[in-house]
Design a protein that fits this description.
Blueprint: H1 11-32, H2 41-62, H3 68-87, H4 92-109
Helix pairs in contact: 1-2, 1-4, 2-3, 3-4
């Protein structure tokens, strides 16, 4: 996207974080509507963590914060955890979310 700074060196990672947060929000909404919602408590909590860290990581990269790399490393860890949680459920929305979380984790962990 890159509305203002089209040349942000971290634009790919910013985009992946934003996509991941959206995927997690959509997945969480759908998980809350599933008949086994009580079994998804841990997954829903991890989705919420992932949404928050992805939003913050994107903001830190946009601001070119000196802490962006460290935050992105943590984001990668949380995205991996979220992918594992979502992977425990066989719903299409969970599978798509897990795939996006894995993609974001790889991008965040490659930050330098």
């Amino acid at each position: 996207m890159g509305i203002v700074n089209m040349n942000n060196k971290n634009q790919t990672c910013i985009d992946e974080c934003n996509k991941c947060a959206q995927a997690c929000l959509e997945c969480m909404k759908m998980c809350l509507e599933e008949p086994d919602v009580a079994n998804r408590k841990k997954c829903i909590a991890k989705l919420n963590e992932c949404i928050s860290i992805c939003h913050e990581s994107a903001k830190f990269m946009i601001m070119d914060s000196c802490h962006a790399t460290n935050l992105c490393k943590l984001c990668g860890t949380i995205c991996d955890e979220c992918a594992q949680e979502c992977g425990a459920f066989k719903d299409d929305h969970c599978a798509k979310c897990a795939a996006q979380c894995k993609k974001c984790a790889q991008e965040c962990q490659s930050m330098q």
